[in-house]
Amino acid sequence: MAGRFVRASKYRHVFGKSTRKDSCYDNIHISRNAWDTNLIKVNPEYLSVNWDSSGGGAFAVIPLNERGKLPDQIPLFRGHTAAVLDTDWHPFNDRLIASASEDGKVFLWEVPEDFTLYTDAEEVPNVAPVSKLAGHSRKVGQVLFNPSAENILASASGDYTIKIWDVTTGQSPLALPHGDIVQSLTWNAAGSMLATTSRDKKIRVWDVRQEKPVHEAPGHPGAKNSRAVWMGEHNRFATTGFSKMSERQIALWEPGNPEPIGGFSMIDSISGVCMPFWDDGSNCLYLAGKGDGNIRYYEYENDKFEFLSEYKSPDPQRGIAFLPRRGINVHENEIMRAYKTVNDSYIEPISFTVPRRAETFQADIFPPA
Fold first, then answer.
1. Structural domain contains residue 187
2. CA–CA dist 246, 119 (Å, integer)
């Protein structure tokens, strides 16, 4: 054992736990659209799913407590004239959701009171949007609510712009022009800066009010999609992407610094996009591979990512969503919960827990967040 040192961390033994099939969300028709998004989004009440439907685009909302095999006919959120590409839940109102579509529109919807998928009506009623935001000239690929300013929404489109909307007025006073298609966007915790990755392989950080990038740097050199996630309260963001040899990479950035801190680190040589998620409470970064069943997790410490462990599964995920921290079960020492799509037909919750024998509240693994 001489010279061997194991880094001390209260999250070192975190493990992912899959769910029995009868407690999953089954009989789901997930959109087969090839556009690269996460397909599902979750909040403590509901799960939204880009749905595979005819006659224009639609998405479904599933109450988290309605597990098991879903009815064959369920109420869909219909209104778009082309496929729904992305959705995002409002951070302060669990019943409000925005959707982006191939038809170039952004719609806002409200989940009805006492919403359920089980209805006795012969005709299953669909839900209509409460407001429509038009302004993009091409398809809208991503929508993302501002985490701190209420009712501010960013949408990224194939017209190479990101528009910032005030959803109460329906106006879009700000636009952030890019040179190519935006592949991902992420707000900082204060909601004043936006980091983006684009098909032109540049990483940009925008001061949104100035409508100009305060930082632009060459990103991952590979041709495949790159993703970015802001690391909460830290003045840092992480990106995932590919090298020229198509190896998956991860990088840690400080806005204003043209090089990633510690360079680009290789993860492996699997071909699927890495979807990054940040948990501010535990300072952990989760990387879920698209098209493989692995979820790796790292702890951020001393300006680097320390690998903790990996959840492995034979079932590949095409879409994944992570629950906001206010929805986790602290009684079971759960520090994170993911929902992953399996075979485009069911959604499986995966619970990440810290093994502890004590039955009282473990304050050290749940710092004030």
1. yes
2. 48
Between the alpha carbon of residue 200 and those of residues 154, 182, 207, 237, the distances in Å are: 20, 9, 20, 19
Higher pLDDT residue, 7 or 41?
A: 41
DSSP state of 125: P
**How is residue 73 written in tokens?**
């006919």
pLDDT at 3 over 60: no
DSSP string across 227-289: EEEE-TTSS-EEEEEE-TT--EEEEEE-TT-SS-EEEEEEEE---SPEEEEEETTTTEEEEEE
Query: Is pLDDT at 284 greater than 90 in this prediction?
Result: yes
DSSP state for residue 167 in the 8-state scheme? T
Distance CA 143, CA 166 (A): 13
SS3 337: strand
Do residues 172 and 185 share a domain? no
Among 12-21, 170-179, 329-338, which is the least confidently predicted range?
Answer: 170-179
Mean pLDDT of 235-264: 92
CB 257 within 8 A of CB 223: no
**Would residue 335 count as lying in a domain?**
no
Q: Which of 293, 229, 320 is nearest to 36 (CA)?
A: 320
Quick check: 258 and 251 in contact, CB under 8 A?
no
Q: Is the pLDDT of residue 5 over 80?
A: no
Query: pLDDT (tens digit, 9 = 90+) per residue, 140-194?
Result: 999 999 999 888 999 999 888 899 999 888 888 888 888 899 999 999 999 999 9
Of 136, 163, 45, 56, nearest to 97 (Cα)? 45
284 inside domain: yes
Task: Please check whether residue 195 is in contact with residue 186, taking contact to mean a CB–CB distance below 8 angstroms.
Answer: yes
CA distances from 73 to 58, 109, 183, 340 (A): 13, 20, 33, 22
Q: Are residues 142 and 204 in the same domain?
A: no
Range of the domain at 283: 181-327
* Total domain count, the chain: 2
Distance, in Å, from the CA atom of 369 to the CA atom of 366, rounded to the nearest integer, reads 8
